[in-house]
Design goal:
single chain; alpha/beta; Molybdenum Cofactor Biosythetic Enzyme, Chain A; 6 helices; 6 strands; globular
């Protein structure tokens, strides 16, 4: 069982002006898929705070997977992708490419997502959009393949041919 953490990035939710709607959706999806959700968190759209929390969740908490929701658009304060890039040693461009591809079947606005994914140590970090609907759709697009990537990252499984695609 892989350990996951969910981090919502939202100024309004961090200020208590609106409830976090996406984080609980993402956490429930991960639990349904067999992940142990260690924690959920909430930070404002401040790059240093996002970076610090991503580092804490990977380095101290030891999450295998950190999923963020929010801050992936074009708004001036949407800096989740920059924070993710700053803390990752290796980027995994296929994950956000797959999410955008799947989302394009739903809305042409999917191309506006700046979501990133990358590896920090032995942790995979994946950015999702902030709306609950978009977060669900994007996670559904990649969730079946993430476990294999996490197996490879942990050293448990290094042979892609030994693990057929879903």
């Amino acid at each position: 069982m892989f350990k996951a953490a969910v981090l919502t990035v939202s100024d309004r939710s961090a200020r208590g002006e609106r409830p976090d709607a996406s984080g609980p959706v993402v956490a429930a999806m991960l639990e349904q898929a067999g992940y142990q959700v260690l924690c959920t968190g909430l930070v404002p759209d401040e790059q240093p705070q996002i970076e610090a929390e991503l580092c804490r969740l990977s380095d101290q908490l030891g999450a295998d997977l950190v999923v963020t929701t929010g801050g992936t658009g074009f708004a001036p304060r949407d800096v989740t992708p920059e924070a993710t890039i700053a803390v990752c040693q290796r980027m995994t461009p296929g994950i956000p490419e797959a999410m955008r591809y799947a989302s394009m079947a739903v809305t042409p606005r999917a191309m506006l997502s700046r979501a990133q994914a990358g590896i920090r140590g032995r942790t995979l970090i994946v950015n999702l959009p902030g709306s609950p609907k978009a977060a669900r759709e994007n996670l559904e697009a990649v969730l079946p393949s993430l476990a294999h990537g996490l197996e490879m990252l942990s050293g448990v499984q290094a042979d892609c041919a030994a693990h057929p695609a879903p």
